[in-house]
Design a protein that fits this description.
The chain has 260 residues and is an all-alpha fold. Helices cover 79% and strands 2% of the residues. A two-stranded antiparallel ribbon has the order 1-2. The longest helix is centred in the last third of the chain and has 34 residues. It starts with a helix and ends with a helix. The mean pLDDT is 91.
Length: 260
Amino acid sequence: MNEQIEKIRKSIEPLRQEIINHPVYSSIKDIDDLRIFMQYHVYAVWDFMSLLKILQNNLTCTTIPWFPKGSADTRHLINEIVVGEESDVDLNGIRKSHFEIYLDAMIQCGADISKIETFTEILKNTGDFSSAFKSSETPKEAKDFVDLTFKIIGSNKDYLQSAIFTFGREDLIPGMFISMVNDIHSKFPDDISILKYYLERHIEVDGDHHSHLALQMTSNLCGTNPIFWEEAERATIVSLQKRIELWNGAHREIINKTKD
């Protein structure tokens, strides 16, 4: 991979390590704690899909009449990722998006999906983010995380959208979290089998094949433009900082629940 990719990787490594080693993971002791974590994480799972679709909209022709748009190589990269994220298979082999599989996992383990469902329903009907956030009582950290994602979406800069998609989302679930989920699953297999499956699919598809495709996509879009690469690096840093704040919110709620 090119020097600019390596430069970004080096720049964001401290933030990545802060996310991977975040205390929220060690604070999850039981299913109740896991439910709280998922109620925050689901917002990141949801807005990832919007980030994915704006890239598809910007990099391919999604309007009628159809005309060739951009690089065929880049079109192939984003379309292949979309297929995997928007129409994967669940535990029963039924086609679902990763967001829908995550909601199924939340329902199975007893996590509250009312906030994310209220948020998405109001947003779908009105397009009003402020009203959706307020009516659903979305946690501030989740609101700030989604706000940043849609700020980047609204920038109309596909190279920034690709950068935070590539560096701000992939490869951020640590082995420690996987181990914890596996341990809870061994005790309560009927409660988190879907979450276990979701994480395994994330590692198998998102963390390997899709991450390589995304790296190539970002490299193609930034090209040899040094300004694009600098902006991409700054956007990625802010995106990772928002992820840390999201985890901080979940961690505080878990800790406060323990104190009560």
